[in-house]
Amino acid sequence: MGEPGPPVETCYRHPNEPTRVHCTRCGRPICPECMIPAPVGHQCPQCVADARREFKEGPTRRVRTLGATSATRLLLVAIAIVFAIELAIGGVSSGLAPSPRALVDMGALVPILVHAGQWWRLITVMFLHASILHIALNAWALWLFGQFVESTFGRGRFLLIYFVSGFLASVSSYTFGNPCAVGVGASGAIVGLLGAFIAYNFRRRHLATSQAYLRSAALIIVINILFGAAIANVDNWAHGGGLLAGIAAGTFAEGVGPSEIRPWTRIVGFVALLAIGIVVAVIRTTTFPSVRCF
For residue 157, what is the domain's CATH number? Predict the structure, then answer.
């Protein structure tokens, strides 16, 4: 006699209905009547209702749940403190802008200096800003998308998305940008949060609220492309790299595949993104052009 197969479960909403299908969000067994199509598998009515309620409550609820010690707030405080230090030690030109020399001394991304061994610039660039307008725009975008991503994924995964996206944005700028350019700003990491926002809503694109959010995100991307094309000193390579990294990071942060393996795919996904960034940066260093910038 063959070994007995696995026991047949019953739907959590209809105990008399046997099933082998599970909700891809919560993992509970669901019958055909309860299956709601999702980008990956099916979700149960309760999870879909929870998602709809979360979106209807909107940013106001998220502000309350994040609290005064949220990572979003801490990042905003950090970049504000660093900007004050820039102005204090670097002199102030018109428009409350620190001098380029001060930015370079404090860790701006200058590809030729990264090539010379100053790898920390791939990270420190995320905390520096070129003017009061620059930091104001980035702070507004960080507050807007940071609230959503942190309340959705939690503080730990939010920080992973932010710094992994920012790192890969810096690697994109280092690899494809002007070898002599001086780059500063948290925009690569912040665009990564937009990418995670897109990834989250794309998985729920069967919901009307997610469809609306995706249309808004597409409009923001178009505006940024036009803005980047019109202004010469915008680092489009960093923005593009950060966006793609954020989409990938947001996908891995939620997990890929069945619920039982998602914790592992999160780890593997983030490690793979970091590994890709390191490998690309090393390759760029070995093939860096021979130029003189100073």
Answer: 1.20.1540.10
